[in-house]
Design goal:
Helix content is about 5%, strand content about 50%. The chain is mainly beta. Strands 1, 2, 3, 4, 5, 6, 7 and 8 form an 8-stranded antiparallel sheet that branches. Strands 10, 13, 15, 33, 34, 35, 37 and 39 form an 8-stranded antiparallel sheet that branches. Strands 19, 21, 22, 24, 28, 29 and 31 form a 7-stranded antiparallel sheet that branches.
């Protein structure tokens, strides 16, 4: 190791190891390093030798840095394996000093002690922008356009692809994002749904993640259903369905083709509905997967419809259930069911459903109507914030889920849907940048 330092926010680094250590630091040697049972943390013990003038001052400075590190989540270790190497950093949780029981003093005014450092087992490189590709452009790092829908219209995509060739390192790493709302002007992000999945495109083909409302067939408990045209809907239309049955009413059905299920490969997907009208009160939605004979294969837990929201993220399903790699899946029926407490007439206006992979899932909701059209998502510290023109940082959104963690060697597709103050306008656009800090495990 060429160098090792403790770094704190807004403070100079405290150097522990360097090629030519300044007095009083005369020697450094690792005695042992123990990894935690879950593999997430490392505790190292080093023998530190001090000699000459300034020992007390050096120890007082180190004690002050270790005390500060215990009181901030942003302390880190920084190391370089060789001169000129890119620095690597690891979160530092705590450190402490103990007298060396074998050699408490050395000749000529020397002194030795043991330094313990408990830190994350994974070291990360500096974050850098990742190239994103979709119909708006190829391998763009400065920002790529996402639309708030995907209905086959040229260029209108709410996803972008990440290439495995751009994901270096050896450990999973969280994705960081910068979202800038460009249309409609003057609006802000009130809800953001972010999803990511691997292996969803190959050979020029890709997972068809959208089910249009107008493509659905009525369920057995629908008392009325119709396709209504609406320029504000994805594809220019939505399906209205009405029902009265209070317990587990079958509303709508879609066919999931063998082609679609082949991309899913047995993984968990969460359907997100975009509604063209206000959701009915006191209604819970549930999904059922049926085989060709109508027999139930899997059912999701119920999800309450949330008042005041156009986007409704529901519970997930494994698509297909009990999947095996060597077997080609048969087509299945996806059925939307509703539960309520009374037999009054209820109405649901379904614009589209997007089947989003739960491999990486994050939902952000604005805190008390906080405004922000320029949103940063920090994957390392699980924070969403807005940077104001004066340089101030405002933590404006709550987290549900976690930022997607990307594994080197895999291609990913990133999906995005959002709400503004006016609901979830399908022609809304935002610019997206992605950031990634490669991770490695080192002794």
């Amino acid at each position: 190791m060429d160098s090792l330092s403790i770094c704190l926010p807004n403070a100079p680094a405290f150097t522990l190891v360097q090629a030519a250590p300044p007095p009083p630091l005369a020697g450094w040697r690792w005695l042992e390093q123990k990894i935690s049972p879950d593999g997430a943390e490392m505790t190292g013990c080093a023998l530190v030798t001090l000699r000459g003038a300034g020992i007390r001052e050096w120890l007082e400075g180190l004690e002050a840095v270790l005390t500060a590190a215990r009181h901030t989540p942003f302390a880190r270790l920084e190391r370089r394996a060789a001169p000129g190497d890119e620095p690597l950093s690891a979160d530092l949780y705590e450190g402490w000093l103990e007298a060396d029981p074998l050699q408490q003093s050395t000749a000529r005014g020397g002194f030795s002690l043991r330094l313990y450092l408990r830190h994350s087992a994974v070291w990360r490189k500096a974050a850098a922008a990742l190239p994103l590709s979709n119909a708006s452009g190829q391998r763009l790092e400065g920002g790529i356009t996402f639309y708030n829908h995907h209905d086959g219209e040229s260029g209108h995509q709410n996803f972008a692809d990440l290439s495995a060739a751009d994901l270096s390192g050896a450990q999973p790493a969280p994705l960081g994002l910068h979202l800038r709302l460009s249309e409609p002007p003057g609006s802000s992000f009130q809800r953001v749904i972010l999803s990511a999945g691997s292996g969803l495109q190959w050979g020029g083909e890709a997972f068809p993640h959208v089910l249009e409302g107008e493509a659905a067939l009525p369920g057995s408990d629908a008392t009325f259903t119709a396709v209504l045209t609406d320029a504000a809907a994805g594809g220019g239309a939505y399906r209205r369905v009405e029902w009265t049955r209070p317990d587990s009413a079958a509303l709508l059905r879609w066919t999931l083709s063998a082609y679609l299920l082949g991309f899913c490969a047995g993984r968990l997907f969460r359907p997100v509905l975009r509604l063209s009208g206000p959701p009915p009160e006191g209604v819970y939605l549930r999904w059922s997967l049926l085989e060709s004979g109508g027999h139930l294969l899997e059912e999701s837990p119920p999800s309450p419809l949330q008042a005041g929201h156009t986007l409704q993220a529901t519970a997930g399903l494994n698509l297909p259930p009990r999947w095996l790699p060597a077997i080609n899946p048969a087509a299945l029926t996806l059925e939307l069911r509703a539960e309520s407490r009374d037999s009054s007439t209820k109405r649901l206006d379904v614009d589209f459903i997007q089947l989003l992979p739960a491999e990486g899932w994050l939902q952000l909701d604005a805190v008390n109507g906080a405004a922000g059209d320029d949103l940063w998502v920090d994957g390392d510290y699980r924070a969403a914030f807005t940077l104001h023109s004066g340089g101030q940082t405002a933590f404006t959104h709550t987290f549900s889920g976690a930022p997607p963690r990307l594994l080197p060697g895999l291609d990913y597709r990133l999906y995005l849907l959002w709400e503004t103050e006016s609901g979830s306008p399908v022609n809304s656009r935002c610019e997206v940048q992605a950031f990634y800090a490669p991770r490695v495990k080192l002794p």
